[in-house]
Structures are given as structure tokens and as C-alpha cells.
């Protein structure tokens, strides 16, 4: 831009050097993306030296309509102000900008002005812009983490492992977070721009974006679409025909892209692990250290009494009390983000629970957190946000009641040990499970645990099984680890530890359920009279056939067995419940040879039909951060029982490093079979 002085200048944002220094090169190499609290340098090309009486001014604008304006001070400023200094005055000037560690994150427009001594603008260039993110490498940033290995996992790693199943049979699926894939960062800011607060008062919303407590809370509200323009619509039962079934997703990127391309319309469908995984992608991308957590036997306490009450009728079916009822999910996923909590009393820094699955309202919105994990462990339920709800998820009692025909309730089992088992996350040191249960609670049954319960206002009750001769009869359910598609046995064992024979009636109910305990149908039921001699045991064997359970099993491939024993005059009734996950077959993925960036590589995917029936409409979906975007490979014809099918796929990796190739197989009768392969992508060497 020329002016009457004839001074012409051009601004070079030095994106390559700055992005490398700010660890954002994975996001983009062309655009400038920097982290707050860390200086970055740009150069000004001038046609002649700056006149000694003239001076530079830098003005930063934020927001679509420049709602927020920040003037950078020249020379060293205070820690909470933007400032700049410059070197050289001939035809090239090096400007170094210093952002405060609590700067607003967002898309900045930069205006460089040359001013006369009397304050007139002699020249102005305002074509430059850059993005500013949180900086967990900066010790003054509230999201600072001192351990580099944690940051490589919780900010830089695009590949995840999500734990599922039941507390005693934990399995996992791979997930592609893809936080550095093309335009994901732009979509993350688009999510913030479409929150209710941003649409209501854009200036106030932008001014709050310095605070990860505010930003992370907005994201948990916006990942689900309940009541706003959020990303994902939740659905917990078939049919999913007008969208994608939750189990089919293998990564966050297609979901985020679809939401943005559709004009911020909700993507169908998500369940807890999908909501949590998308939140993890967005938070990591913005620079907030985040990990995905799975809580096994997770309580959903609707009425806030810290117990989950299951009412059963005389057929052992759940007694319907309308819509709002307590439930216990086999597993539930949320995320934890790392931040200092300057808004709370001391002792609440560190990991914070954030849960984007729409369960209960929090301050009128479907969001949850950030809630300090330490507050949950210590029973400090007065801290914001949503501590009582999170505390119940990991600590509630489960109480089973039988409702008699006259409406009377009989308490038949109090379970204080099942909720909040094996709380899990992916290890920093590889693709294995790290147990974080002791971050959330003191050891089960310890004195300290009891103290926390009482502090949290919880009744400390004793289990109530047994009456005349407590514990004379014991009821157990045993099973192997069955594979979906096979027939398998369930053994119900009645032990009599008393001195006289016991006569009892045993009812066994086998049903299909979803992972969050929705009843899908009864597979089998039997009621028999048993006599168990003193000091011995009776075993009842049930054969569960594929043909019987396939009719009602859900996409979660989960069978629940309830055994109920009544011995009139002997003792209280006994109830025991077992959840049996049906394990899925493996996909085999091979990527032979060396992978080099921008050069074609071939992957071979094979799969054998384990079912006694043919599979129709088979389709593979393949994706991987830095490798290729989600691609579907449909199969022609049916796959017979026991038949092995193989496909090959060629793609050219776009980024170097250790990458994960994720594959999902879907068909009419067998869905959501997952596989993963590691691909090491090397640099291209030019001779």
C-alpha cells in the first residue's frame, strides 16, 4: 500500500517458523497459528527507513464485526497486556509480538499503522490475520502442564482408545480424534461462534474466551444438539436409518465436517462415547489438555438421593414409572480437561470432569462441568459445576425392590460396591488401559471412603441380605466369554452353606439390553424348584443359542441374566445380575512395505464371517489422521458362513509420523466390527 510518503510495506507472518515454534505445524503450515503467552515474530518490508519522528502502532481486532479491539503497547508491557518491540529500521523490520498468558483465544485481525507525531495515520495495512490458542506449554497459562510426555498424549496425539463393555469384561475400540486435520480448527471456532451465548451477545462471549472454564463449558453444551445449534443428535435405540448408527463412527472428523457443511445442523447420531470423543477433539485442538474417561457401572441418579432404585415386578421385569427413572449404565464416557481453577477455593486445580452427553440440565443447559475430580474424591459437592451429579455417577448405591401386586415394596438387594468400577483412560505410554478409579474415590470399604460419603450427605447403610440365618444361601452366575454368533452356556449356582436342606424356587431371566440398560427383549425364562442339600451346591445350566438371542440383541451385543431365588421361611429372597458382553470378531489389516509421505501405499483388509448365516450389504469404512479421510468400500454379493473376504485400498499419506489406520465393517446382521493398524509414515528424501 502506497501513501504520500512513498513508504511501501508488506507483512510476512513467517508462518513456517512460528508454527514450528508454537507446535501448530500439524494444524497448518501456511496460516499463522500461535499459542498465547509465547512471543512470535513477523517482518515488515519497507521501501525506505522509517522517519525518526514517525512511530508504529499495532491494533488487534477480534470477532466477525471487530467487536473487540486491543491496542498492543510498544516496549515491554505488563504481563496481562499485548506488547511488541522491533529491530532494524532500513528496508526490513522484525516485529516481535508478545501475547499475555490469559489472552483471548480466537481469530485475530492485525492492523499495522505508521503514525505521525501529531497522531495522524500516515499508512495502514490490515490484511494480516492469525489464530491464537491456549498454551499448555506456558507456565503462566492456566492450562499449563509441566510434563512433556503428558502433552504429547493429551494435546498432540490424534489417535485414541475408548474403553467399553462391562467392568469385568472390558474391551476397547480405536478412535481417530484428528484434531489437526484440515479445517478442524476452523470448525472448533465455528462451534464457539454458534453457542447460545455467542449468538445472544457476541462481544461478551469473545471477552470470556480467555477462560478455559467458560470455553470448555460452552463446548460440552455445543457437542450435543439439545436446545442449541450443537453438533450431534443423540439416539439410544434403533432405527438409525435417517442417519449413522452411533457404533459405526470411527472418528470425530467426519462428524465435525458434516455439521459444518450442513450449515450447523445436528449430525445423527451419537451416544456417550461419540459425544465424549468429539469434545476431546475440539478441546485438544484449542489447546486444552484432555483425555477420554470411561466409568464402568455408571449411575444416572435422577432424583439426587445418591441411590439408584430398580423396581421389579413379580416377573423380574423393570417396573415402569414413566420417563424419569434412575438407571445404571454398563459404561459411560466423559472427558477430563486439565486446568487451574482460579474461580474455586484452593485444592480444585487439575483434572476437571466435562460431560457432553445430554443427561440432566445444568443452569438450564444440557451440559456438565467442569467439575474438579478432587472435589468428587473428597465429597466437596458445593463446588461448581454439577458435583452432586458426577459424585452419584461413581458412588451411588444400587437398590433392588420387588413391587408386590398390592403395591407393597420389598427391598431385596443393596449393592454398594458395583457403581464406579475400573474407571479407565488410555495410557500416556501406549495403547493400554490406565485405571484412574483412585482419583475419584478412596479404596472401597475404607474408613476414609465412609467419611467422604457422610460428608456428601449420603446415608451409610449396611447391606440387607439374609434374615434368620444370614447368608445361608448364596446365588452365583457363571459364564465363559462368548463370541457373538456362537451358542454358549450360562451356569446359575445355588450354594447352601447352612446345616439343613433348602427348598427354593429359582427364576432365571435372560434378556437383551443396551449398554445404558434399556431393555430390548426377553430371550429366555425358566422357573424351577430346587432342593439344595446342606453344605453343597446345585447347578442349573442354560444353553443360549444364537438363533434365540439374535432376535432381540442390540448393537451393543449385550445379554443380561437375572437370577432370583425364593426360599420361603428360610431367608429373604436373593437376586443376582450378570451382564454378558458378546465379543466381536477381529478385522485383519496389513500395510506391507514402507510408507512415505505423498506416495501411494496399499492396505489389505480381510474378514471372516463368524455367523451361521450369510451377511448382506457389507461395507468397510476406512479413515486415519494424516493418512486419508473417511472412505467407504462397499462389497458385492453375500458373505457365506465361514467365508473369508479380502479387499485392498490404496492411499497417499499426507503427514509424517506414527499414524493409525482405522477400519469398521458393517452388514445387515453383523455391525461395527473394528480393526486398527499402525502405519509409520516417513519423510520424502530428495537425492
Describe the structure.
The chain is of the alpha+beta class and 687 residues long. The protein folds into four domains: 9-133, Immunoglobulins (Immunoglobulin-like, Sandwich), CATH 2.60.40.10; 151-455, Coagulation Factor XIII, Chain A, domain 2; 473-581, Immunoglobulin-like; 588-682, Immunoglobulins (Immunoglobulin-like). It is 15% helix and 39% strand. It contains 13 helices and 37 strands. The strands form nine sheets. A nine-stranded mixed sheet has the order 1-3-7-6-5-4-8-9-2. Strands 18-17-16-14-21-22 form a six-stranded antiparallel sheet, sandwiched between helices. It has a five-stranded mixed sheet with strand order 31-37-36-33-34, with no helix packed on it. A hairpin with a 3-residue loop joins strand 33 (619-624) and strand 34 (628-634). Helix 3 packs across helix 7 and helix 6 runs antiparallel to helix 8. The longest helix is centred in the middle third of the chain and has 15 residues, at 272-286. The radius of gyration is 30 Å and the shape is globular. The two termini are 42 Å apart.
Amino acid at each position: 500500500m502506497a501513501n504520500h510518503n512513498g513508504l511501501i510495506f508488506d507483512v510476512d507472518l513467517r508462518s513456517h517458523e512460528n508454527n514450528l515454534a508454537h507446535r501448530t505445524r500439524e494444524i497448518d503450515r501456511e496460516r499463522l497459528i500461535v499459542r498465547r503467552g509465547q512471543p512470535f515474530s513477523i517482518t515488515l518490508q519497507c521501501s525506505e527507513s522509517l522517519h525518526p519522528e514517525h512511530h508504529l502502532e499495532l491494533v488487534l481486532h477480534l470477532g466477525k464485526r471487530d467487536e473487540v479491539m486491543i491496542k498492543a503497547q510498544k516496549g515491554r508491557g505488563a504481563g496481562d497486556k499485548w506488547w511488541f518491540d522491533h529491530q532494524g529500521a532500513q528496508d526490513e523490520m522484525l516485529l516481535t509480538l508478545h501475547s499475555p498468558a490469559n489472552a483471548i483465544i480466537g481469530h485475530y485481525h492485525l492492523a499495522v499503522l505508521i503514525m505521525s507525531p501529531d497522531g495522524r495515520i500516515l499508512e495502514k495495512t490490515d490484511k494480516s490475520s492469525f489464530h491464537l490458542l491456549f498454551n499448555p506449554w506456558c507456565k503462566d497459562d492456566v492450562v499449563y502442564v509441566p510434563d512433556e510426555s503428558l502433552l504429547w498424549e493429551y494435546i498432540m496425539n490424534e489417535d485414541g482408545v475408548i474403553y467399553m463393555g462391562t467392568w469385568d469384561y472390558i474391551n476397547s475400540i480405536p478412535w481417530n480424534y484428528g484434531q489437526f486435520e484440515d479445517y478442524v480448527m476452523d470448525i472448533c471456532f465455528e462451534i464457539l461462534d454458534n453457542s447460545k451465548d455467542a449468538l445472544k451477545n457476541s462481544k461478551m462471549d469473545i471477552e470470556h474466551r480467555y477462560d478455559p472454564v467458560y470455553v470448555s463449558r460452552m463446548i460440552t453444551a455445543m457437542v450435543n444438539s439439545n436446545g442449541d445449534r450443537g453438533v450431534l443428535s443423540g439416539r439410544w435405540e434403533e432405527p438409525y436409518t435417517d442417519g449413522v448408527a452411533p457404533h459405526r463412527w470411527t472418528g470425530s472428523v467426519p462428524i465435525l465436517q458434516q455439521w459444518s457443511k450442513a450449515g450447523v445442523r445436528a449430525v445423527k447420531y451419537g451416544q456417550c462415547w461419540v459425544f465424549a470423543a468429539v469434545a476431546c477433539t475440539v478441546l485438544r485442538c484449542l489447546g486444552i489438555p484432555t483425555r477420554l474417561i470411561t466409568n464402568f457401572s455408571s449411575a444416572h441418579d435422577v432424583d439426587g438421593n445418591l441411590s439408584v432404585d430398580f423396581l421389579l415386578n413379580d416377573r423380574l421385569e423393570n417396573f415402569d414409572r414413566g420417563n424419569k427413572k434412575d438407571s445404571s449404565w454398563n459404561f459411560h464416557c466423559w472427558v477430563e480437561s486439565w486446568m487451574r481453577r482460579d474461580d474455586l477455593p484452593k485444592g480444585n486445580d487439575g483434572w476437571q470432569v466435562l460431560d457432553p452427553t445430554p443427561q440432566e440440565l445444568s443452569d438450564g443447559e444440557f451440559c456438565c462441568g467442569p467439575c474438579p475430580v478432587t472435589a468428587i474424591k473428597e465429597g466437596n459437592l458445593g463446588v461448581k459445576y454439577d458435583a452432586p451429579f458426577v459424585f452419584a455417577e461413581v458412588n451411588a448405591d444400587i437398590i433392588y425392590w420387588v413391587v408386590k401386586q398390592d403395591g407393597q415394596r420389598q427391598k431385596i438387594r443393596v449393592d454398594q460396591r458395583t457403581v464406579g468400577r475400573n474407571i479407565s483412560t488410555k495410557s500416556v505410554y501406549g495403547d493400554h488401559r490406565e485405571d484412574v478409579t483412585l482419583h475419584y474415590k478412596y479404596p472401597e470399604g475404607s474408613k476414609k471412603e465412609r467419611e467422604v460419603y457422610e460428608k456428601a450427605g449420603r446415608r451409610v447403610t449396611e447391606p440387607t441380605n439374609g434374615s434368620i440365618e444370614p447368608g445361608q444361601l448364596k446365588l452365583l452366575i457363571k459364564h465363559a466369554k462368548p463370541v457373538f454368533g456362537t451358542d454358549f452356556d450360562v451356569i446359575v449356582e445355588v450354594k447352601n452353606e447352612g446345616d439343613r436342606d433348602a427348598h427354593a424356587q429359582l427364576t432365571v431371566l435372560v434378556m437383551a439390553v443396551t449398554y445404558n440398560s434399556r431393555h430390548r427383549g426377553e430371550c429366555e425364562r425358566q422357573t424351577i424348584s430346587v432342593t439344595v442339600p446342606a453344605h453343597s451346591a446345585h447347578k442349573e445350566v442354560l444353553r443360549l443359542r444364537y438363533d434365540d438371542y439374535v432376535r432381540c440383541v442390540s448393537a451393543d451385543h449385550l445379554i443380561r441374566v437375572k437370577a432370583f431365588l425364593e426360599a420361603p421361611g428360610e431367608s429373604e429372597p436373593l437376586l443376582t445380575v450378570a451382564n454378558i458382553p458378546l465379543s466381536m470378531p477381529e478385522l485383519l489389516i496389513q500395510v506391507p512395505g514402507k510408507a512415505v509421505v505423498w506416495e501411494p501405499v496399499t492396505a489389505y483388509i480381510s474378514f471372516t464371517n463368524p455367523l451361521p448365516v450369510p451377511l448382506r450389504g457389507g461395507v468397510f469404512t476406512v479413515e486415519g489422521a494424516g493418512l486419508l479421510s473417511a472412505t467407504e468400500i462397499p462389497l458385492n454379493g453375500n458373505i457365506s458362513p465361514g467365508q473369508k473376504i479380502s479387499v485392498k485400498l490404496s492411499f497417499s499419506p499426507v503427514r509424517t509420523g506414527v499414524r493409525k489406520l482405522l477400519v469398521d465393517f458393517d452388514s445387515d446382521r453383523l455391525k461395527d466390527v473394528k480393526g486398527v493398524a499402525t502405519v509409520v509414515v516417513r519423510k520424502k528424501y530428495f537425492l
